[in-house]
Amino acid sequence: SHVMAKDTPESLEDVRLSQAVHGVSVVAIRQNSNGQWQHMTSKNNRRITVNSPVTFSGPAANSPLLKNKANNPTLGTVNNCGAGPTPWGTYVTCEENFNGCFGSNEPFKPSKPQARYGLSNNDFGYSWFAYDERFDLTNPMYLNESNRFGWCVEINPFDGKALPVKRTALGRFKHESVAFMPEKFDKRAVCYMGDDQRGDYCYKYISDKPWRDHLLYGESPLDHGTLYVARFDEGVDGNDGAGTGEWLELSMDNPTLAAAFNSLDEILVNARVAADLVGATPMD
Fold first, then answer.
1. Alpha-carbon distance 249 to 278, whole Å?
2. Average pLDDT over residues 196-211
3. pTM for the whole thing?
């Protein structure tokens, strides 16, 4: 509302203005002789907004759950929360409360997976859905648009021409941040993530092999690996389990999930639902 100087948008132009302040900025800075940090002109400086081209990779990249009848291009990142640098020099930003960008003026009854992600008639007050059909939950041409958000997005800050990549192997939920394990402990890419909503879970991702090997073969370490969710022991006599528990695999190798899902892409797009089924521990 501050950007538009009005409480709600009154046109698509207003919506575009609101959308322009969502996303990520890449800015080059340097320290001058006085020790002050200054902005630098760089071909890599850029804004990545709701309407910037992005691409998907990993097991769910070509999933039917990410395709719309409108056949519209994949665009944008929203409600970006924390982020983390990778050992190979890129930057991963996390999409958090993306559900607040979607809504509808028409009656909308969410499916069980949609409800699990908080999608409803009521957005966060942006009212993009009134003028931008991508964010209208009752528009059948954009049925899966909301599935395109809630991901970890890898950005190469040193290549202004490289598209941001949504890494589907890391699962879809309301990502708070991502933290990579120091390389000295494990040569594979190992990262930890939290779902930032009361009652949701902690996740871990491990690449299949050392991350340098993935890069050597032209692969991303964030495309080839396994996602896990945490179950913490309750313990006895008031003890919380003393840090013990189990990392539960979220894949078709888990019999519980193989009985409920048809493929890995369905698990990753609906990671919250999968985590519910395997008995992950809700956090406060």
1. 9
2. 96
3. 0.94
